[in-house]
Amino acid sequence: MPDTVYGAVIISIIDFFLSFVIITFIGVVLRLLPLVNRRWKIDEAKLRSGH
């Protein structure tokens, strides 16, 4: 299919929308990180000391 201009346009449109899906997913993960930190009480001092 990508051997024609039509196929290239279709793949470009699919890629365009998938990029929004991936960027949204990354945003959701970053938004949830503070909630995860509160839930499991991740202590930064313990992380730095290695224990």
What structural keywords apply?
single chain; 51 residues; mainly alpha; rod-shaped
- Would you count the extended β strands for me? 0
Order of helices and strands: HH
Tell me the helix content: over 70%
How many helices? The count is 2
Structural class: mainly alpha
Tell me what portion of residues adopts beta-strand conformation: under 5%
Low-confidence spans: pLDDT under 50, at least 5 residues?
A: none
What does this structure look like?
The chain has 51 residues and is mainly alpha-helical. It has one domain. It has two helices and no strands. It has helices at 5-40, 44-49. The relative contact order is 0.08.
Give a topology summary.
Blueprint (H helix, E strand, L loop, with lengths): L4 H36 L3 H6 L2
How would you sum up this structure in a few lines?
By secondary structure, the chain is mostly helical. The protein is built from 2 helices and no strands.
